[in-house]
Amino acid sequence: MSTRCGIGYDLHRLAEGRKLIIGGLEIPFDKGPMGHSDGDVLAHALCDALLGAAGAGDIGTHFPDSDPKWKGAASLRFLEHARKLLDERHLSIEHVDAVVILERPKLGPHFPKMRELLAGALGIPAEKISLKAKTNEGVDAVGRGEALAAHAVATLSSR
Ligand code: MG
Q1: What is the residue extent of each domain of the chain?
Q2: 0.90 surpassed by pTM
Q3: pLDDT, tens digit, 9 for 90 and up, residues 131-154
């Protein structure tokens, strides 16, 4: 058995009148990410980490924002697609770990539901998904509440 790791990162600007969706979960807030899809930074970073570990390119290759098919798309669909791709390559997800960076709102209370949604999309137990949140201490665009970002790492094993 061999092990492979992948890294993913994403950032979206925040704007009024957009739904705040993180990890597939809609969270009540007065702003949400701008984007062609639902702008789910956590799902996008995770997707890139999984594709990276598989050596299968990146989210932009698989879901180009020039394709109307993905306009307003629920990003959990990207993860479902990544899961199929891993399956075809005989790769299993051992673990994913992620950190979401935003000033507000607090994400901790939402993590159990997010892990459940992500686990469903990826076909793995929620125990294999680790989520963390940080603020940016008021520094830069994320700190001013103008954007949110996420980093993710995925560990795969080949079978
Ligand atoms: Mg994105």
Answers
A1: 3-158
A2: yes
A3: 999 999 999 999 999 999 999 999
